[in-house]
Specification:
One of its GO terms (molecular function) is DNA-binding transcription factor activity. The protein is mainly alpha-helical. It has helices at residues 2-22, 36-51, 57-63, 68-80, 103-112, 115-126, 132-139, 143-155, 170-180, 186-193, 195-198, and strands spanning 55-56, 84-89, 92-97, 159-160, 166-167.
């Protein structure tokens, strides 16, 4: 069982390491960092972070099949070298390629990585007139759950509840969803596929 896990881990690391090796990051993992496994792990993280920006520690660790200490060590080294940066988001620490996103993008990506807020954002991008009841039905959650998530999105500056629910920066959110759809879920991919129909041209 361990041998099978190790094989899958190595395959996962190699896949993201290939992305990392081609990524326009500052600095690279070098022989001074340790052995080949260390370099491969470091490069895998360097490949993973720009393709899954805003991922929190546990997701990164699990997706790359790393141990907790192993992930912590390499993330710390990459932050120290200026290749990645992290921000605290409630109970999570989220990771981003350094210098790539402004603060609003980071907040938006953080909420897009949470199931209920992401579902609400996707639903409102499709139907800006959706009500709280519409959102609850679409997501299969309670109205209080929608209200709580809406309050969080409003505090983050991503939602206006003055008159119903209105996204404050729909173009920015749509751009992030389309660009990173594969790192979210099937609903995000479906919306990205329909993005052209969601853009309103008003000359």
């Amino acid at each position: 069982m361990t041998e099978g896990f190790d094989g899958r881990k190595r395959e996962t690391l190699r896949r993201f390491a290939a992305v990392g090796a081609a990524a326009p990051f500052v600095g690279t993992a070098s022989a001074a960092d340790g052995d080949a496994d260390t370099n491969e792990t470091r490069e895998a993280i360097r490949g993973y972070v720009p393709t899954t920006p805003g991922a929190h520690f546990s997701k990164l660790r699990d997706d790359l099949r790393l141990g907790t200490g192993e992930a912590q060590y390499h993330l710390r080294k990459l932050e120290e070298s200026g290749a990645i940066e992290s921000v605290k988001d409630a109970d999570y620490r989220r990771f981003f390629p350094a210098g790539r996103f402004d603060e609003t993008d980071k907040r938006a990506l953080g909420y897009l990585r949470r199931d209920t807020p992401r579902g609400m954002i996707l639903a409102l991008l499709r139907d800006p007139d959706a009500t709280g009841a519409d959102l609850a039905n679409a997501l299969g959650v309670s109205r209080p759950t929608i209200s709580a998530a809406a309050a969080d999105l409003e505090r983050a500056g991503l939602l206006d509840r003055t008159d119903g629910y209105a996204l404050t920066e729909p173009e920015r959110l749509l751009t992030l969803v389309v660009r990173y759809a594969d790192s979210f879920d099937a609903e995000a991919v479906a919306l990205a596929d329909d993005a052209a129909s969601l853009v309103r041209y008003d000359p």
